[in-house]
Amino acid sequence: MNSKLFLYLICIIFISWQCAAIAPPSGGKKDTTPPELLSANPPNGTVRLLEQVIELIFSEYMDEKSFADGIRIVPVLEGEPLIIFKGDRVIVTLPGGIKNDMTVVLTLSRSIKDEHGVELAKPIQLAYSTGDIIDTGVIKGRVYSTQPAAVYLFNEDNSDSLLVSKPDYISETEDDGLFEFNYLSSGKYKILAVERGVAGLKLDQKRMFFGVPFDSGIELDSIFTAVRIRLFKEQEPLRLLRGEWNDWYWGQLYFNNDLDEDITIEELKIGNQEMDWFYHFDDKKAIIVTVQDSIYSNKEQISFKNIKLEHTVLLDSSVINVSIPAEVDTHYLYLTSPETKLSITPDKSGPPFELVFSRPLAEEWLENINIDLLMDDTIQVVYIRKIDSPMKMSIIPENGWEPKKSYQIKLFRQDSTRSKSTFKDSITIIHIETTHFQGYGGLSGMVKGYESTQLITEILSVENKEWNFKSVVNSEGRFEYKDIPESSYIFHVFDDRDQNKVYSYGKAFPFHTSEWFFISPDTIEVRANWDIELQPIFMGN
Fold first, then answer.
1. For position 73, what pLDDT does the model report?
2. Taking a C-beta distance cutoff of 8 angstroms, is the pair 392, 279 a contact?
3. How far apart are CA 52 and CA 275, in angstroms?
4. pTM passes above 0.85
5. CB 486, CB 479: distance < 8 Å
6. Count of CB atoms within 10 A of residue 70's CB?
7. Number of C-alpha atoms within 13 angstroms, CB side, residue 213?
8. pLDDT, tens digit, for every residue of 481-537?
9. Is 115 exposed, middle or buried (0-12, 13-18, 19+ CB in 10 A)?
């Protein structure tokens, strides 16, 4: 081969290889890195601000739509800022109304995103002043909530309706609930937390999650760091939402709130016929209603005089229409729960094994249904039967469940000419596997740093929300828990000012502070067969 031709081919191959080497790979991992603000012009902290135009430069191209509600100016001014969007550069023209010797704070909220939809890691604040100094006051705190929150700050004006007006300042919480207001002037303030999705709107106590602090106000001269707020939603007055009639002799009523276990219902009727009722087996907002004589009309009205809790009327007289099925339900009886296979963790109370039936049954039927409880398929186990309601029965071994064993529950069909009163199959079998025995331990300790004779500690399991226990703090500041299920717990303390043993969240209007509280930043471990003495817990104010 000609040497010149050979060298020419080698050069072509080398150049092709070099071009291929610098080509970017296809695909790749999704960008999840939060965008960063690289610089601002004029820079943060500028005084004697003349031009009210600020240029922001980010680490990557930004999402234009997210800027519409993502930029806030405080104090709140008339009008909206003018925003010009240029990829990774955003030019903001401040609205009119800025006065001499005024500190203005530009806040970039966490809702601002890059072109990949990734939010800012935390809110960003930039402060400018038309005077010679920038205010340096700071308010810090934390909102305890299961959802993102925003925090409103108001200049105190002694108005009782202040917290339901538009805020003067808005901040947003970080992932751990922490928030911060910077560049504040000295003075008096009130504070309020709301769910982040409604940030900027006036408070609607009936529709929004919100929270108020345990201090009536903040008097700021430099830095204030003791703000703690718990977010909640006020419970609406009890209302009857709807009714259903499932058969000729029973139905269901649904309400907007959970029903207390001790309510009474006066003069509950369908048409002119009185009804009995009991709590729904798995819906705390519902009840099951029954009649002795079947209802044969197409439609009827369900009514009651009132619903009471002790001497308090929760709901006055209500009426609702229900449609009656044209034909009686002739389906066989069946179990709505449990499943045919399940696991049980034995504990000191059993736990009871619950059988839920597809329709209300007479007490006599429930007492006489033939049930066998077997261990390892052959060993007959003596059990206790408890009728919880016409649709629910509990079974528990007389000597408790043995750990790491296999059980069977057998329900036998009863002879009946009515299919709705018996099971389709001759035997219904449920298989149960028990785990290791639930361990129990003890927990005690002392709280310090807050003086009150009405302190209550509360521990809430991370694994099981039903494990919620309280202990009154004695005159020496000590608390104690005995026989607590093994678990990780969140530790709370609150000042039970109204002495009702329940934490009170307060009100925004008319304004009423919440009860003082403290939540430990660390979980506490309760171990089986251990009585743990904690180091003193310093709470602070």
1. 84
2. no
3. 72
4. no
5. no
6. 21
7. 21
8. 999 999 999 999 999 999 999 999 999 998 999 999 999 999 999 999 999 999 999
9. middle
What are the tokens at 333? 């009886």
In contact, 194 and 110? CB cutoff 8 Å: no
Superfamily of domain 440-538: Immunoglobulins (2.60.40.10)
pLDDT tens figures, 173-190: 988 999 999 889 889 999
CATH of domain 335-434: 2.60.40.3710
CATH number of 41-230: 2.60.40.10
Strand ranges for 363-454 from DSSP E:
371-375, 379-380, 383-389, 392-397, 406-412, 427-434, 440-448
Collect all residues with Cβ–Cβ distance below 8 Å to 54 and sequence separation of at least 6: 40, 41, 42, 91, 92, 94, 106, 126, 128
Greatest mean pLDDT range, 67-76, 82-91, 100-109, 426-435: 426-435
pLDDT at 312 over 90: yes
Query: Strand ranges (DSSP E) for 123-195?
Result: 124-129, 137-144, 149-155, 169-172, 178-184, 187-195
The conformational region for residue 245 under phi > 0 = left, psi -120 to 50 = alpha, else beta, is beta
Q: How many angstroms separate the CA atoms of 12 and 14, rounded?
A: 6
CA-based nearest residue to 503, from 520, 488, 518: 518
Question: CB-hemisphere CA count at 13 Å for 535?
Answer: 4
Beta-carbon contacts of 535 under 8 Å, excluding residues fewer than 6 positions away, are 445
Q: Residue 302: CB partners within 8 Å, gap ≥ 6?
A: 243, 251, 253, 268, 269, 270, 275, 289, 319, 320, 321, 322
Instruction: Give the pLDDT mean for 377-391.
Output: 94
Tell me the Ramachandran region of residue 400: left when phi exceeds 0, alpha when psi lies from -120 to 50, beta otherwise.
left
- Alpha carbon distances (Å) from 541 to 21, 213, 354, 434, 448: 63, 12, 46, 47, 10
Collect all residues with Cβ–Cβ distance below 8 Å to 482 and sequence separation of at least 6. 442
Q: Does domain 240-323 have CATH number 2.40.110.10?
A: no
**Per-domain residue ranges of the chain:** 41-230, 240-323, 335-434, 440-538
